[in-house]
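Complex record, two chains
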Amino acid sequence: MRSGDLILQTMSKVVFFIIILFSIHLFFEGHYRPGGGFVGGLMTSGAIILLLLAYDMETVKKILPFDFKWLIAVGLFISVLTAGGSLLFDVPFFTHVHDYFNLPLLGKTSLHTAALFDLGVFFVVVGVTLTIIQTIGESE
Amino acid sequence: MTEILDIVVLVFILIGAFFSVVAAIGVVRLPDVYTRNHAASKSATLGVMFILMGTFIHFAAEDHTNTRLILAIVFIFLTSPVGGHLINRAAYYTGVKMWDRSVRDDLMERVGNLNVRSADGKNRKTDELKK
């Protein structure tokens, strides 16, 4: 299905990047303020669904040429690795650590392994939402 | 200084609330979907932008500069008219009638022969739908 509306297509090109940037912002500030992997993932999939509405399924498949079911697997894998990595250091499952690092551009930054777990949640949410939308959209 | 800012914030939020009320009255009182959409998309957008601007100034005066509000203003300014355009476009192509006192319809000449899908799922010419 092609809507072919020039105003919608042009505006979604601009708005897509605003939504993606805001979802990344929500993802990274989840530790200190409202946000996190779930909301960030939903917002990212919302941006991709906007592209689906403005263009069509084939165009979005050309932009993101992979099966979204893989994202679910990758996200679960990252989360399990983060949780299971704590077993290597002889501490209980799911123990998180954080420390302060001097990163080259960002300066003193606190890095937490919970962010990696959140990254897994992010991928799972994006994968599940887009798989649902794609499956419903393709069935005639 | 803060007193002046308080007055500025008050004025911004009152203007925003006023435009929102105008939009609501317009949606209730105007005769057809196109004029209603005109009221809703223009006036409500400006109203919400004014309220967000007042909120931004209020928190910026307390050293809590919230750039999300600026982003929200830009976002609403970009997307709300496009939403109004899409609703009007969908209404026109599904054959929603204009107000009976409308005087001209220039788009009709352009798309008069276009096949559109009407509400009952059949493809019809727009000429038939307009009658």
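Note: Strands of chain B lie at 115-117, 123-125.
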